[in-house]
Amino acid sequence: MLLIVGSFIGFILLIALFFFVFRLFSFTVFYIPGFDLFFQYVITAIPYLLFFAAYYYLYNKIKLSKSKVSRIIARILLIMGCTTGLVTLFLSTAIFVHIKSDALRVFEDNGHYALIAQIIIIFLTAATLASGDEKEKDWKERVNE
Prior knowledge:
- It is a single chain.
- By secondary structure, the chain is mainly alpha-helical.
- Helices cover 83% and strands 0% of the residues.
- Helix 2 (35-62) runs antiparallel to helix 3 (68-96), helix 2 (35-62) packs parallel to helix 4 and helix 3 runs antiparallel to helix 4 (102-131).
- The longest helix is centred in the last third of the chain and has 30 residues, at 102-131.
């Protein structure tokens, strides 16, 4: 029983130590000149990096699809998604470096719609790839074979 209680207390102390180290690290790096701008840009770019990772994953899955029609539609959607991602990343970078333009002001107000569009494109690409494959057998059919 003492071992379980000691493990629990040790786990809580480990979490507290992690918070302390990360807090000390954040205080330290924000005193480096320009790091706050770097951090802001990384936060701006992270969603686009995640989307590009999803596009890369789907690109590798296109080769495994058995239906030629689903491969073609998935490639078209993938090209649309990558183009949308590159354009919106470019526009977000232009906003980050404070380029003044009316079009950028409109994009800044409505930029979340571009992220939603990318999520929809990823979903449609995955659905297209899934529709091209044969129906998966349920567990009863697998056992009977």
